[in-house]
Amino acid sequence: MVNKNRVPKMIILTAPLLIVLVIFLSILYGAKSFDPMTVWNAIFHYHADNQDHAIIQSSRVPRALGALLVGAYLAISGALMQGMTRNYLASPSIMGVTDGSVFVITLCMVFIPSLSSYQMIFASMIGSALGAIIVFGFGSLIRNGLSPIRLAIIGTVIGTFLSSLSAAIASYFQVSQNVSFWYNARLHQIDPSMLKLAIPFGVIGIILALYVSKSITILSLGEDISITLGQRTKYIKIISMLAVIFLTGTAVALVGKIGFVGLIIPHMTRFLVGIDYKWVIPCAGIVGGLFLAICDILSRFINYPFETPIGVLTAIIGVPFFLYLIRSKGGKNVV
Amino acid sequence: MSILRVENAEARYEGNVIFENLCLDVIKGKITTIIGPNGCGKSTLLKTMGRILKPKFGKVYLQDQDINTLPTQEIAKRLTLLPQNPIAPGELGVEELISYGRYPHRKNISNLTTEDKEKIEWALEITHTLPYRDRPLGSLSGGQRQKVWLAMALAQDTTVLLLDEPTTYLDLAHQLDVLQIVENLNHHHQCTVVMVLHDINHAARFSHEIVGMRDGKIMATGSPHELITADTLKQIFHIDARIMVDPSNGSPVCFGYESALAEEEFVLHKEKENVAT
Ligand SMILES: Nc1ncnc2c1ncn2[C@@H]1O[C@H](COP(=O)(O)OP(=O)(O)OP(=O)(O)O)[C@@H](O)[C@H]1O
Ligand SMILES: [Mg+2]
């Protein structure tokens, strides 16, 4: 057992170093690259009239942090959903959670414009809950609807429906311009005031996730076994769902929809650290954050000097992985 | 004295009534076996007794306490249930899975205590699963897996065990092995066991009490001698069974049977003819 926990402990111990490194790289390189000294000064000896300093402080730093946070939030959400439902295709973007967020955000932009960042996060969280409720509601109505592939189909159909509806509403009320931000996540337009809020909201979500992490392992043995072992399964599921709503809602409010992170990172993490969610949850957060931050750096160079939307990158990596999952795990309903 | 009591329970799946007004007393310190045709509600009854399904009406009592008001962790220290088809992640290690059996006894600290470790070791040993302790569950055969699940239930260290077909997937020798483990637990640890079996000869040999079910109704309960008779087996399974007594241990044995349906149809046919004339 001592030996087995080496990988997760290593990930957690090296995380701070890797995170700092990735933040640093993310600040250094882009359409305009800086030398390390400028970055150092911009952070520790900030001059408001220095243009480079301004770019670094108002754009690069929020972007680096945003990518890390969003990656972590989505990966943890995905890990929670997969463990809780024992569905290897569960993730915020496939189960309609992110589409729900965008839908409610669109409604808000039309009917209650000039929402504060704070209210926006709330709207997004309500949307996450709504998306999840509709998808799981349909899933439980249809016979066998909670099986991995059916739930994925239901989630995709409802997700597409919600996002088409949002697009229709947006174009009818002529707010498409504003709403498109949430469809094609653009990390370079992160609103610093939103970022400041995303941290406490995300922290609540992460604390909830860590609190249930061990129970998720028990739940992943199946509902019957979980009850037999004396677990309050409903309570655990509610807390997990709350964590997902906090994390996904915040992530969408911050940068919009990003697909596949929540699906593939939990799988990669389990591959690395095993299936004990006590380790999977924190490690998924670390791996997800680093993954998205690195994707974000790469996205600046694929079509230099133009930015490639981050969603394109995550999809290029994610789609083959998704197909691989269906092929290799399709027969078994085991995470 | 009854340790587990089902009182006028009704169980449903999405509006489908599986049984209603069902009553059952499980006698403390005895082995009770439920027999009955596929789909008659045996697993449903076991799940109701194990609080996995909440009865729509009626109550289940564990030592005279309502099972739906007792804290679930309290119940988990006294009662375990081995489902018919448990599925766990294939990557899970055998020993790790068995160690989750200790979950209800956990204190606030997350590490296993010496007592936990002893129980896990004991469960591995008694179920003869020691050779695979370090292997992932997914790499085991169906029968080996079945024993690992049993080991997990045993590690839970409860006085009441509900076992749903603990001998499926097992060959003749291993079936006997598992049933002797159960007998042994009952004998030396005063465990109360309720299990579902399809082999009536095993039921006859290893139970104190047999419950015969059909279509969600308990048709008969009694000792093996009272229950394993041509008449009751016909009622429960619609078979014509030939029964004799095993001279080596005195328990009834069904050594052959025919379907009673052909005869039934004949009777029905006759009745119709009678009505016609
Ligand atoms: N989860 C479920 N949802 C809906 N119906 C179910 C469910 N589980 C069982 N049933 C139905 O309830 C009835 C009783 O099932 P149960 O599993 O209790 O039978 P059983 O006696 O254990 O059968 P077997 O010997 O095949 O295990 C069956 O008709 C079955 O189709
Ligand atoms: Mg059954």
TrEMBL record, chain A:
Pfam families hit by this protein: FecCD (PF01032)
Membrane association type: Multi-pass membrane protein
Major location category of this protein: membrane
CDD domains referenced in this protein's UniProt entry, alphabetically: TM_ABC_iron-siderophores_like
Places the protein is found: Cell membrane
Gene Ontology biological-process annotations: siderophore-iron import into cell
Molecular function (Gene Ontology), one example: transmembrane transporter activity
SUPFAM superfamilies according to UniProt: ABC transporter involved in vitamin B12 uptake, BtuC (SSF81345)
Assigned GO CC terms: plasma membrane
Chain ranges passing through the membrane: 12-31, 64-81, 93-112, 118-139, 151-173, 193-212, 238-265, 277-298, 310-326
UniProt keyword list: Cell membrane, Membrane, Transmembrane, Transmembrane helix, Transport
Organism domain of life: Bacteria
Similarity comment: family membership: Belongs to the binding-protein-dependent transport system permease family. FecCD subfamily.
Listed name of the protein: Iron complex transport system permease protein
UniProt organism field: Croceifilum oryzae
Automatic annotation (TrEMBL), chain B:
GO cellular component: plasma membrane
ABC transporter domain location: 4-240
Membrane-topology descriptor: Peripheral membrane protein
Subcellular location as annotated: Cell membrane
InterPro entries the UniProt entry points to: AAA+_ATPase, ABC_transporter-like_ATP-bd, ABC_transporter-like_CS, P-loop_NTPase, Siderophore_ABC-ATPase
Nucleotide-binding listed as a keyword: yes
Pfam families the UniProt entry points to: ABC_tran
Annotated protein name in UniProt: Iron complex transport system ATP-binding protein
Source organism per UniProt: Croceifilum oryzae
